[in-house]
Amino acid sequence: MIAYIHGKLESVTDLVVIIEVNGVGYEIICANPLKFQHKLGEIVKIHTYHHVREDAQILYGFEKIDEKTLFSQILNVSGIGPKGALAIVGNAGVEEFTLAIEEENEKFLTGFPGVGKKTARQMILDLKGKLPFVITQTANDQGQTVSSPTTITKEVTEAIEALKSLGYSDRELKAITPALKQENTKSIDELIRKGLALLMQ
């Protein structure tokens, strides 16, 4: 798995960016490639999802790791492929999408290209309670309680992925995510140890 590409941004088109690393140009499909246009000729880091098919190996790229994480989660939904998942990530913020899933907001979900009511319901069924982003409660100007998701740090995300590889379920990991988010450390190893301690309680 290619987790990210770090190199010189050589080219930007409507569909892809090309990054050169040690004389090799990597073509990366992005939802909104033109947002990298201002970094042309500079050294950049793009988080990538390495999609392997029988007939091709494709790199999908994201500016933020949360976007990559959301993309990989959406791919788990029956009936949604990389093209559809990329369109969703490119047209919705991680926070907006997470809140729509948790609140079962079909109207919001059907606003994406190719997503009808059946697919929206499938996304809610497959993703509700499983997205690794924390939703906090805040009060608006009228004093009403509203939900707003807050993303977790890269270190917490990587620690959760490591714990998932050990066989823990999404439900178990979601339960300990708020506690990990409160840890005042950027050490992934420490976060993993803390996570294991919480899971064994």
Automatic annotation (TrEMBL):
Query: Quick check: keyword DNA-binding in the entry?
Result: yes
From the broadest rank down, the organism's phylogenetic lineage runs: Bacteria, Bacillati, Bacillota, Bacilli, Bacillales
Q: Which Pfam families match?
A: HHH_5, RuvA_C, RuvA_N
Instruction: Spell out the residue ranges making up region: Domain III.
Output: 151-201
Question: Assembly and partners?
Answer: Homotetramer. Forms an RuvA(8)-RuvB(12)-Holliday junction (HJ) complex. HJ DNA is sandwiched between 2 RuvA tetramers; dsDNA enters through RuvA and exits via RuvB. An RuvB hexamer assembles on each DNA strand where it exits the tetramer. Each RuvB hexamer is contacted by two RuvA subunits (via domain III) on 2 adjacent RuvB subunits; this complex drives branch migration. In the full resolvosome a probable DNA-RuvA(4)-RuvB(12)-RuvC(2) complex forms which resolves the HJ.
Q: Does the keyword DNA damage apply?
A: yes
**Any idea which GO molecular function terms this record carries?**
ATP binding; four-way junction DNA binding; four-way junction helicase activity; hydrolase activity
Main subcellular localization, coarse class? cytoplasm
Functionally, this protein is described as follows: The RuvA-RuvB-RuvC complex processes Holliday junction (HJ) DNA during genetic recombination and DNA repair, while the RuvA-RuvB complex plays an important role in the rescue of blocked DNA replication forks via replication fork reversal (RFR). RuvA specifically binds to HJ cruciform DNA, conferring on it an open structure. The RuvB hexamer acts as an ATP-dependent pump, pulling dsDNA into and through the RuvAB complex. HJ branch migration allows RuvC to scan DNA until it finds its consensus sequence, where it cleaves and resolves the cruciform DNA.
Matches recorded under InterPro entries: DNA_helicase_Holl-junc_RuvA_I (IPR013849), Hlx-hairpin-Hlx_DNA-bd_motif (IPR003583), NA-bd_OB-fold (IPR012340), RuvA (IPR000085), RuvA_2-like (IPR010994), RuvA_C (IPR011114), RuvA_C_sf (IPR036267)
Give the domain note.
Has three domains with a flexible linker between the domains II and III and assumes an 'L' shape. Domain III is highly mobile and contacts RuvB.
| Protein source organism | Natronobacillus azotifigens
Location in the cell reads: Cytoplasm
CC per GO annotation:
cytoplasm; Holliday junction helicase complex; Holliday junction resolvase complex
Helix-hairpin-helix DNA-binding motif class domain location: 72-91, 107-126
User: What GO terms describe the biological role, i.e. biological process, of this protein?
Assistant: DNA recombination; DNA repair
Arranged from A to Z, the UniProt key words for this protein are: Cytoplasm, DNA damage, DNA recombination, DNA repair, DNA-binding, Hydrolase
| SMART domains linked to this entry | HhH1
- Protein name according to UniProt: Holliday junction branch migration complex subunit RuvA
Family note: Belongs to the RuvA family.
